[in-house]
């Protein structure tokens, strides 16, 4: 992509931001759906654009756009969770009414594959931070891929947890393995030691500083050796979601960074909590830095759903202290 094409892309995104920001309401509607569909289509094609190098005015628009996307996504999930919760039989039998359900299936399968590459045993307890009213990742993983694992879903919004609980309460299996906690994850400490894997939703921590504080908190309280799964964004997709820079994962060993190039929007970062005791990490200036990758290679993605994505992996050579 040349500089002229990048300029045209940024101009298109800024025009869409201008139209989205003028909407009176971000609840699902014909106008809202159309504008966000146009935005996603503009951002999905693979692009070498580096959003961190854009001018300040565009950076400001990007920050505002991510927040608008977050609000719209929350309202969309709330809308469909309410509809699903109204079914008399098991609401989980009707998940395909959610317009992006297939994307969640693909993303969850990708994350499971990545997790399987770095996790020797099936995790017994998983935490999902920022699960929302429609916790599709937890539901998909628990239903199809991690069928003996218990899932602890954390969200700061009591109404979101109430709606989510309604979805699984009539399911004889998931109602016994999915739990919901209404709290700010920054107020959770000792309980984080209980999880083999912690997922951090893309929209938990909408700016770099907020995301960094949450990651540092997880680094301090997660069990040594536990895995952290984060969602990030790459190229033009960084206009939709915050970027997690692997360099900011202090206290973790970064294992892989995957950048899909198909309709799965989020990049996936997986890291392992440093095996040293927490007090050792806190000596000196802050937390221990992450172990940097020794090489970078581009590989063909593992592709169980045959959607043809290319994934960039940061290959970490084994390092001994």
TrEMBL record:
Membrane-spanning residues: none
Signal peptide segment: none
Record-listed E.C. numbers: 2.5.1.43
UniProt record, GO biological process: nicotianamine biosynthetic process
Entry keyword set: S-adenosyl-L-methionine, Transferase
Reactions mediated catalytically: 3 S-adenosyl-L-methionine = nicotianamine + 3 S-methyl-5'-thioadenosine + 3 H(+)
One term of GO molecular function: nicotianamine synthase activity
Pfam families referenced in this protein's UniProt entry, alphabetically: NAS
Domain of life (superkingdom): Eukaryota
Family note: Belongs to the nicotianamine synthase (NAS)-like family.
Record function comment: Synthesizes nicotianamine, a polyamine which serves as a sensor for the physiological iron status within the plant, and/or might be involved in the transport of iron.
Full protein name: Nicotianamine synthase
Organism: Nelumbo nucifera
Lineage of origin: Eukaryota, Viridiplantae, Streptophyta, Embryophyta, Tracheophyta
């Amino acid at each position: 992509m040349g500089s002229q094409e990048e300029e045209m892309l940024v101009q298109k995104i800024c025009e869409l931001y201008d139209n989205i920001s003028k909407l009176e309401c971000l609840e699902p509607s014909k106008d809202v759906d159309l504008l966000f569909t146009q935005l996603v289509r503009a951002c999905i094609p693979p692009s070498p654009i580096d959003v961190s190098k854009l001018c300040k005015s565009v950076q400001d628009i990007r920050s505002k756009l991510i927040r608008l996307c977050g609000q719209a996504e929350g309202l969309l999930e709330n809308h469909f969770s309410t509809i699903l919760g109204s079914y008399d039989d098991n609401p989980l039998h009707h998940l395909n009414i959610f317009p992006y359900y297939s994307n969640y299936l693909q993303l969850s399968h990708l994350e499971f594959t990545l997790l399987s590459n770095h996790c020797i045993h099936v995790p017994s307890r998983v935490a999902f931070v920022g699960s929302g009213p429609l916790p599709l990742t937890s539901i998909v993983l628990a239903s199809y891929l991690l069928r003996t694992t218990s899932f602890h879903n954390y969200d700061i919004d009591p109404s979101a947890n109430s709606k989510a609980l309604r979805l699984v309460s009539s399911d004889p299996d998931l109602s016994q393995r999915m739990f919901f906690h209404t709290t700010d994850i920054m107020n959770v400490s000792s309980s984080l030691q209980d999880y083999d894997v912690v997922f951090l939703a893309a929209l938990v921590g909408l700016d770099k500083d907020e995301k960094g504080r949450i990651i540092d908190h997880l680094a301090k309280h997660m069990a040594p050796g536990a895995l952290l799964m984060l969602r990030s964004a790459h190229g033009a997709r960084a206009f939709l979601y915050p970027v997690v820079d692997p360099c900011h994962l202090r206290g973790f060993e970064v294992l892989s960074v995957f950048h899909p190039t198909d309709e799965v929007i989020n990049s996936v970062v997986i890291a392992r909590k440093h095996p040293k005791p927490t007090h050792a990490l806190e000596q000196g200036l802050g937390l221990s830095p992450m172990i940097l990758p020794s090489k970078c290679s581009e590989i063909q993605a593992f592709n169980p759903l045959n959607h043809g994505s290319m994934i960039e992996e940061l290959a970490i050579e084994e390092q001994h202290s």
